[in-house]
Design goal:
- By secondary structure, this protein is α+β, with helices and mostly antiparallel strands.
- It has a single domain, classed as Gcn5-related N-acetyltransferase (GNAT) (Aminopeptidase, 3-Layer(aba) Sandwich), CATH 3.40.630.30.
- Helix content is 24%, strand content 23%.
- The chain has a 6-stranded mixed beta sheet with strand order 1-2-3-4-5-6, with helices on both faces.
- The longest helix is centred in the first third of the chain and has 11 residues.
Length: 156
C-alpha cells in the first residue's frame, strides 16, 4: 500500500505550492510530460498514475487555483530523494517557480532527515544551482541501466 505523507504547503508571490494529491490536474501533467518534455515523451497515463502512486507529487498553483508548475519526489522518506518531472507551464515561466519548488520541497517535515538529494537535467542546471543543487562530486560512482532504445544501433 502506498505511503500517504502529510500535506505540505507554502505560498509565495500569489502562488501556492502543495503536495495535496487531490489538487493535481492529472490531464495537464500528463499532457505536458508526454507532449512537451524531452524526458517523458510518450509516457502513458497508466505509467504516470503508477509513478504518482509511488512518489510525492508537488503542484504549484496560481491564485485562481489553476496549475502553474509540477514536480515529484521519489523518496524513501529517510535518507534519499530524487526530484524529477519538474516543469513550469508557459504562462508562468520566468517567475522562478521551478527553483522555488526544488528548494521549498526540502522543507517538507517528512523529508527533514533526507541527506542525499539528486536530480537530472539536460538544460536547466542554472535553475537548480540557485536551489542549492551541485554537480555530483564523484559522477564515476553512479551507474544506470540504459533503456534499450539508448543502446540499440539506430538505422540511418
Amino acid at each position: 500500500m502506498p505511503r500517504v505523507p502529510i500535506v505540505f504547503e507554502a505560498s509565495r508571490n500569489g502562488y501556492r505550492l502543495s503536495t495535496d494529491r487531490a489538487r493535481l490536474d492529472l490531464a495537464t501533467v500528463h499532457r505536458f510530460l508526454t507532449d512537451d518534455s524531452y524526458w517523458a515523451h510518450g509516457m502513458t497515463l497508466d505509467q504516470l498514475q503508477r509513478a504518482l502512486e509511488h512518489s510525492l507529487p508537488i503542484g504549484i498553483y496560481a491564485e485562481d487555483g489553476s496549475p502553474a508548475a509540477f514536480g515529484r519526489v521519489v523518496t524513501d522518506y529517510a535518507v534519499f530523494a530524487y526530484l524529477r518531472d519538474v516543469f513550469t507551464l508557459p504562462a508562468h515561466r520566468g517567475k522562478g517557480l521551478a527553483c522555488w519548488l526544488a528548494k521549498e520541497i526540502r522543507n517538507h517535515p517528512e523529508l527533514a532527515s533526507v541527506t542525499s538529494w539528486m536530480l537530472a537535467t539536460r538544460d536547466a542546471h542554472a535553475v537548480y544551482e540557485k536551489a542549492g543543487y551541485r554537480p555530483a562530486p564523484h559522477p564515476e560512482y553512479y551507474m544506470t541501466v540504459p533503456k534499450p532504445s539508448d543502446t540499440e544501433p539506430r538505422e540511418p
